[in-house]
UniProtKB/TrEMBL annotation:
Protein's recorded name: YrhC-like protein
Annotated transmembrane regions: 21-39, 45-64
Keywords, sorted A to Z: Membrane, Transmembrane, Transmembrane helix
Protein source organism: Virgibacillus pantothenticus
Amino acid sequence: MDDKQKELQYKYTDYQRFIGVLLILSMYLFLGAIINTYLRPSEDGVALIGLTLVALSVGFWLHYQQRRIKKLLDKR
């Protein structure tokens, strides 16, 4: 295994971990938005929904990058 392939493998596992963390963070933000909006009415729910969407967007982007890395690793 050459250095470039090792580096791609490390990136692949790092992206996998980041995606998991972002999904968990998104879940907490979404639950916080629901609690703030429906159980204890306040205006903070909109900001939390926005942060949830940002975290999910970054997670989807990392998943796309991870798939590209997987294709590169499969070629080699």
